[in-house]
Amino acid sequence: MGRAPCCDKSNVKRGPWSPEEDAKLKAYIDKHGTGGNWIALPQKIGCNAYIFSDSINLTDMCWRKLIIHYTGLKRCGKSCRLRWLNYLRPNIKHGGFSEEEDNIICSLYISIGSRWSIIAAQLPGRTDNDIKNYWNTRLKKKLLGRRKQSNINRLSTSSQDPKDTNGQEDKSVLSNSALERIHLYMQLQSLQNPLSFYNNPALWPKLRTLQEKIIQSLQFLNENTTNPWMQHIDVTPPSSQPGQGQKVDFYEPPTVALNGSNVLESRLDGMEQFNAKIQPISTFQAELDALHLLNNETTGFPPQEDPIAEFDCFKEMDGLKDSVIWWSNDFNSKSASSNTWDATSVLQYQNYVSSYNLQ
DNA sequence: AAAAGTTACAACCGCGAGCTG
DNA sequence: GCAGCTCGCGGTTGTAACTTT
Fold first, then answer.
1. Domain of life of the organism in this record (predicted)?
2. N vs C: which end of chain A shows fewer Cβ within 10 Å?
């Protein structure tokens, strides 16, 4: 047996509110308040002008029929409450979110997730519904990016049923909200903390070995290739002193990797090709190795063979790199602040990457 | 100009919490 | 303790407006 409906749905109006209905509701609440009972409110509004009297003891259904008969507000109490709270009550602001409000929403979302009522409480004049809509339609896209969001959706779809084949609930599956928060946190970390991850060796004890391996590979290419573009790649490793070393950032524009702007200008097409090939591949390898380390609980690497062959191997997975690239920005920052990132997050990372077919 | 796709927002739904008799 | 009720919340849906093809 299902839950009893809050009202007689066949006899209440649904959909957008008309100005007349708004005026009726507002006028009543301005005069009488909500009376502490939203369910009965539309009945009172409807009957007030005609026969409303506390001395008349009618059943709920009788009241409702009277409302409809006497052209009262044909809305259920929940609808009235929603309309009042989200639209009609005084000092409500709509749209035009400021940068400061964006920051507050973002920070609180990371901290507490989709607790919209709590977030709304920090933003005077904003409703939870408004903030929720703003987040879902604009702010999330603004902060996370369309492509990345589509990846989250993809993951969410792939794990929509959090039960395994035995019908057991998969405890390692995070909510969509949690995934977004992880992603958002990483993005903000990378913006706010220039010493994070790649720039701070202390944050990547395992991946540091990987980094050195990639650097070795690039140096190998640098020394052995006849490709003129390769010869201008500066692969100086980061200093072991956090904050003092040269930044090794795979998202860095190609200009920082070149010695001489004239080279860049005259050979931009070639450099773009190189950049498109090498930099994302390196990033993606970091991700794969991170996954490898997590899955196998080992700090070793498979014997390195021909680095070019290795890159070719990664090239086959090139189409995948964008799908997981955001995970790498500050992946190890969570291991460096274990009070923030727990084992569940790591498990989710594993689930995320392993949900893709390498083809 | 029209169809298709996307965005933004209002409103609805169902659930859990809490209150009351 | 319980049943019945309302409230408040978060997720979801419906749709008008807008944009792209």
1. Eukaryota
2. N
d(CA A34, CA A25): 10
- Whose CB is within 7 A of strand C? A 4, 6, 15-16, 34, 36-40, 60, 77-78, 81, 114-118, 128-129, 132-133, 136, 175, 177
Give percent of chain A above pLDDT 90: 0
Nucleotides of B under 7 A from a protein CB: 7-15
- Of A88, A108, A134, the position where a domain reaches its end is A88
Would the Cβ of A141 be found within 7 angstroms of any atom in strand B?
yes
Inside any domain, residue A301: yes
Does A143 lie in the same domain as A211?
Answer: no
The Å distance, CA of A175 to C1' of C18, is 32
- Domain that residue A182 falls in: 99-160+170-191
**Average pLDDT score over residue span A125-132:** 89
Range among A56-65, A97-106, A167-176 with highest mean pLDDT value: A97-106
Q: Which nucleotide is nearest to A96 (CA to C1')?
A: B8
pLDDT value of residue A156: 41
A317 CB closer than 7 A to any strand B atom: no
Tell me the Ramachandran region of residue A238: left when phi exceeds 0, alpha when psi lies from -120 to 50, beta otherwise.
beta
Instruction: For residues A217 and A304, state if they share a domain.
Output: yes
Nearest nucleotide to A82, CA against C1' atoms: B11
**Tens digit of pLDDT for each residue in A276-311?**
333 333 333 333 333 343 333 333 333 333 333 333
CA atom of A181 to C1′ atom of B14, Å: 25
Q: What local confidence, expressed as pLDDT, does residue A180 receive?
A: 67
Q: Quick one: A73 and A149 in the same domain?
A: no
